[in-house]
Amino acid sequence: MATAREIAESYWKAECERDTEKVLTHYHSNATFCPPGQVLVGHEQIRTFYDASRTDFPGLDVTINNEFAVGDQSALEWTAILTSAQGERFTINGVNIVKIRDGKFEWVHAYFDPSPMQPKGS
Fold this sequence. Notes:
Elements lengths: L3 H13 L3 H5 L2 E8 L5 E2 H15 L2 E12 L2 E11 L5 E13 L2 E9 L10
Parallel strand pairs: 1-6
Antiparallel strand pairs: 1-2, 3-4, 4-5, 5-6
């Protein structure tokens, strides 16, 4: 059975490839994903987040800085460098709290400040 870290590494590899279909293989079909200000349930809703992210930020690199695991739940501290369609680079830090069931995410709560990624003047 894969660890939460192994699943997260595979998930972020797929996300960095900007491959929504591969990303979704890491989630159960009825999983919940909670990025800041949203609650997305199921593949169709979760897809909207990753498709929008890919459009707005075609470049992505993620590093896992730390992990704390207890049973089927883990906290993964990360740093992401996003590159916008205009070539601007943004560095954000965050934590994903995840629950794993049968080798996939049952739920993911992503905590990060999205304000550095907002267009100037917003």
